[in-house]
Design brief:
signal, 3 strands, three-stranded antiparallel β-sheet, mainly alpha, elongated, Fumarate Reductase Cytochrome B subunit
């Protein structure tokens, strides 16, 4: 008796694959029971096709009209069983995929209802390839160029050496704002690079768990230290903008290459032309990276690119480069993708500028670090690099100059 039952069970199991295969054959024109409300043919069930997948990989929307229209219906009754439910999983998935689902999100913003969108594939590819490659080579190339320049030019020395007379160059509040800006930017730079390069370079060395801990910490540091960066950037701008307005002395500085090449030391006020370039680069790039960062922190409240693209299209900018018009109907997720790429590109440019600034303030020029270290610089250094500023200081504020005896 047991043998008969086992044989019957074996025959039943062997027949199941054949039955399932017959029911799910995509080339068959026979109705597929239980898979659509109207028991339609296989070609009308809206199942995903290879072309759908390829279109998404190209950044295009699927064109299958059945899938985008078959977004619900009455529950089906399986033979001998009760209803399968109010809606099938396929119906719910299609509703989400085509942004037709009745969703409530915690942001209370209707833009948050968009759970799936197609544009992320090109963004991910650009982030993994062009952004990493060109951004990484920009930083490496900047370091190499600075190293070669140091090897050829050496350190810029103070003519005649230090005489011991100290001049107050920056007050405590100025140094505090500078170091807050510098320290926060360094933290933001490293945590941003960890986030971008972690998957490719850190996981193979330290493993997934260590990389996960590092990137979670980097996220919290990046999101919170950014406020210190933005506040100190505003303070630095207010304090130093009047000293960084271009004037005719800058032309002389450029003509003599700032004294870096050769032996000439052009006259300069509190900030020379090179420092003014650094200042405005930090302000412009810093504001841009801050605004794009705020857009990433508050994506539904601060969309940036839809209106920007609309303005650029109105000016005809895409046509200047033989491109099609920029997209203006952007989902919040697409806004974040553009904002993230812009944020990273501007950050790479800013890091390259800051590397040059760090070089001049440390290895490149003798006595330069003292200006932001103690705030006091040697009089010979001040006369060599900022003679106009020193003359004005000696005339109007002699108390800021301390002789060795003092």
């Amino acid at each position: 008796m047991l043998r008969h039952l086992m044989a019957l069970l074996t025959l039943t199991l062997l027949s199941l694959p054949l039955t399932v295969a017959a029911q799910t054959d995509p080339t068959s024109s026979d109705p597929i029971a239980g898979t659509s409300v109207d028991d339609g043919p296989a070609t009308a069930t809206g199942r995903q096709t290879l072309e759908d997948i390829l279109r998404r990989q190209r950044g295009e929307n699927p064109i299958n009209p059945i899938r985008s229209e078959d977004l619900g219906g009455d529950a089906l009754n399986a033979p001998g069983m009760g209803p399968l439910g109010g809606a099938s999983d396929s119906d719910i998935w299609r509703q989400i995929r085509f942004d037709e689902a009745d969703i409530r999100n915690s942001t209370l913003n209707p833009n948050g209802d968009v759970l799936v969108q197609t544009g992320g594939i090109w963004w991910e590819n650009f982030r993994k390839d062009e952004l990493r490659t060109y951004g990484g080579w920009l930083l490496i190339g900047t370091i190499v160029v600075l190293g070669l320049f140091f090897a050829l030019r050496g350190r810029i020395r103070i003519d005649g050496g230090k005489d011991g007379t100290l001049v107050l160059r920056f007050k405590f509040i100025e140094r505090m704002a500078h170091w807050t800006l510098a320290g926060s930017f360094i933290l933001l730079g490293f945590t941003g690079l960890f986030t971008l390069f972690g998957r490719k370079y850190l996981i193979p060395v330290f493993g997934h768990d260590a990389n996960s801990v590092l990137l979670i910490g980097s996220k919290y540091i990046h999101n919170n230290v950014s406020w210190a960066f933005m506040i100190s950037l505003a303070i630095v701008f207010v304090m130093w903008i009047w000293h960084n307005i271009p004037d005719k002395t800058d032309l002389v500085w450029f003509k003599q290459a700032g004294g870096i090449i050769g032996k000439n030391h052009p006259p300069a006020k509190k900030f020379n032309a090179g420092q003014k370039i650094i200042f405005w680069a930090v302000i412009v790039l810093g504001v841009s990276v801050s605004v794009s960062g705020l857009s990433l922190l508050f994506p539904f409240e601060m969309p940036l690119f839809s209106h920007t693209f609309e303005i650029l299209n109105g000016w005809g900018v895409p046509g200047w480069f033989g491109m099609e018009s920029f997209p203006v109907a952007l989902a919040p997720q697409e806004e974040m993708q553009f904002a993230q790429l812009w944020h990273a590109i501007v950050a790479f440019l800013m890091m390259a500028v800051i590397l040059g600034h760090i070089y001049i303030g440390t290895l490149g020029m003798e006595g330069a670090y003292d200006a932001m270290g103690s705030g006091m610089v040697d009089r010979n250094w001040a006369h060599q690099h900022h003679s106009l500023w020193l003359e004005k200081l000696e005339e109007k504020k002699p108390h800021k100059i301390k002789t060795p005896a003092e």
